Amino acid sequence: MDGSNALYDKDELLGRDIRQLGRLLGDAIRSLHGEAVFESIEAVRQTSIGLRQRPSQEGRDALQAQLHALSPVDTKQLIRAFSYFSLLANIAEDQHHTRRSRAHLIAGTAPRNGSLTQALKNIVDDGHSDQLQEVLAEACISPVFTAHPTEVQRKSILNCQMAIARLLDERDRIQMTPEEEEANEEALARGIVTLWQTRLLRTTKLSVLDEVENGLSFFDRTILNTLPQLYGGMQDTLAKLDPAWQGRELPTFMRIGSWIGGDRDGNPFVTADVLRATLQRQSNVALSHYLTELHKLASQFSLAQALSGSSEQLRRLADEATDGSPHQVDEPYRRALHGMHAKLSATHALLTGAADDADSRSHYVSAQALRDDLDILHHSLLAHGAGALAKGRLRQLRRAVQVFGFSLAPIDLRQNSDVHERVVAELLAHARPGCDYLALDEAGRCAVLREEIASPRLLVSPYQAYSEDTAGELAIFAQLKKAHDTYGQDAICNYIISKAASLSDLLEVAVLFKEFGLLRRETATLAVNIIPLFETIEDLRAGPAIMEQAFSVPEYKQLLQSRGMRQEVMLGYSDSNKDGGYLTSGWELYKAEIELVKVFARHGVKLQLFHGRGGSVGRGGGPSYEAIMAQPTGTVQGRIRVTEQGEVITAKYANAEVGRRNLEVMVAATLKATLLGERQFQPEAAQLAAMEALSASAMQAYRSLVYETEGFDTYFWQSTVISEIAALNIGSRPTSRKAAGKIEDLRAIPWVLSWSQCRLMLPGWYGFGSAIAAFLAEDREPRLAMLRQMYQDWPFFHSLLSNMDMVLAKSDIAIASGYASLVTDVALRESIFGRIQAEHARTVDAVKQITGQRELQDHNPLLQRSIRNRFPYVDLLNHVQVELLRRYRDNNADADTRVGLHLSINGIAAGLRNSG
């Protein structure tokens, strides 16, 4: 077998890595804790594997007996062992994905989906090269990092994992001598010992700035280098495919955004001071990277004037440098870089708060000014035959400065519309005595708001004392304006309105912008995009009409002209799912997009959609390529923003090579959906009617269980780990909007995480089985044939079922029954779990019938293999968790039990990966 085929093997090398990592973990446990502890863990492991392979009540009873006999201390060690194994299995799987991607490149083949090279080839071969240039000039492709309490993993644990991953990667890339192989294994052993002795749990709750630091670590680790590489690789590929692209530089069409430090919806800890600190920390990461790169370039660019030559601009730039070695007087590139480094150091001190003021001549006033100096180097090298040097590190840095600027990542601000309503009401009460804004109907509110937008008078007075909440919100807007003055408008260019349900919700933000010079009445300019977020099923249905109203208001329409006649709309996947169930959420999102396209076209406004997709299918997640390709025709148009949440950020961007692959997939899908969109499937009227009927039935079944069944709240709180999740130190945001404990008030993220922990994954499938059964009750064969055709031809329907298939494969009714046994009311337990069990069976059967699979995930052997490798260990953690919940709730809440319970949550999340 040749090298490339060996690398491509789907099982052999992955199995090798998992076995080796598992063996080294066992060696570490044996060495650190003794043979008895190791044997105890191994005995339980063998029982769990046997139970997964041959499920039986006898096997479950044997496992329960083993677990029940363990002391709290031994239970904690068992959980740690299985949790760490899941982390190691994740490393091995990620490395195998990288190995297979490299094998494709070596063999000159394309992966099944998401190859950027193949997408560009298809576009050029179809004669769309010129159109591609036009699309890229207007394109905006942006993953947006968000901080949510699903990422239970500590940064220290991630660092350990990355050290192990580098050692595995080294074995694939280097032909080692026997001594080097031995050294590599010894280093792996040391890495695993370090991992084993590093805490899985945090001892304190994360602050917002802790979340900021966690998010920034992915820029240091991956994004700062990987994104410029993507641009360079894409530019080179296009130049090879079409000579017309020779010498062209791609416009900046992809940036990474962030909500971390700006998302205030339900998070009282995001203040103006936190926003200021976030901006400074982001700037520090960007500028520190540039300083490092300038230093490296200076060490490399030792070109002597007499031997290389240089442009007059370059020599002038070199002469401006005030320091430098006398030994470098004939090295203009090096002297220029030293001067740039000094100037950027002064900029760094100014922007990160280390200096209060600086002479404008001694620092860069903008990122473009730094880019201009770098361009001088670039053009000088090209003019003097040193194009190879221009294409290396310098090209990377030039692109990085263009993409990341001095602010690193645009921060989105988000707040709930109810808060804006209260703030505006308080301002109006002081500025317009007798105006009871909250008592006005929608028409009355809009009339008042339009008057204020047109008025030169300001509502905010420095002499007026405002409530604490209003003062806090006004401070945010003041900090937003200061951020623009300090870092430029790219630092914060989007303001998202949660729970947007009316035109007044948009106009309230416009009024607040005017107060701080972010809306200039006299020039009708808007410095920040106003973005409504339509979240619930009702909001999604009302969204197009709200935008119709907004575009009919002259003052608002005029503001859009200053934003290029472009309006962004955010669609909420998580809350719409929690509100109406998985199928209805997906269908209402699809319909809302179609209607928005029509509204925007009527008013001559360009649409940009922001998809609030979660990490899990239960929150709208799933593979990015399929999701983008499944968008309705005309909704992408080269512009798309997508949230990256929780543990998905780690899975996608902790490893640089995996990170680049995920970014390329997003670009490939966006360009294909835009330029090859005419190939997209157009559903027929009968298929649309079928989806409407299925959605109605599915929503009725879902809401009947979740919101209309008496006692369901009690069942949920007793049969899941929701209470224990609330006690974990895994995020700055509260798990619920209110303290009442109602499901309506619970955030979608802990809602989904709770169901995944008990292996029901209910938000990702419930209601579908009932909907299919009702739909097939009449004319079964013709209707089933139509559904099968929809699955084959319609990317939207195919994506829905593929994601549901994956969720069902990760669910386990037998394990879920153990959690149901924790419900103290026997009648309630049997009634609700019986309904869930029956619906699960109906849904599995429906998915198999439509997809034509004998078993779930027959079409996805990679996931089947993953389940086979890791689920015996995840199953065991579930069984332990049930045992610990029983002890904990029986008032045996000793420290070891409490820690063990929290460790089990961590371990199950790691094992299931995209579960919360």
From TrEMBL:
GO terms for molecular function: magnesium ion binding; phosphoenolpyruvate carboxylase activity. GO terms for biological process: carbon fixation; oxaloacetate metabolic process; tricarboxylic acid cycle. It holds the Pfam family PEPcase. The keyword Nucleus does not apply. Its cofactor is Mg(2+). Its EC number is 4.1.1.31. InterPro entries: PEP_COase, PEP_COase_bac/pln-type, PEP_COase_Lys_AS, PEPCASE_His_AS, Pyrv/PenolPyrv_kinase-like_dom. It catalyses: oxaloacetate + phosphate = phosphoenolpyruvate + hydrogencarbonate. Keywords: Carbon dioxide fixation, Lyase, Magnesium, Pyruvate. It is an enzyme of class 4 (lyase). GO terms for cellular component: cytosol. The active site is at H148, K578. Signal peptide: none annotated. HAMAP family: PEPcase_type1 (MF_00595). Belongs to the PEPCase type 1 family. Homotetramer. Forms oxaloacetate, a four-carbon dicarboxylic acid source for the tricarboxylic acid cycle. This is Phosphoenolpyruvate carboxylase. It comes from Rugamonas apoptosis.
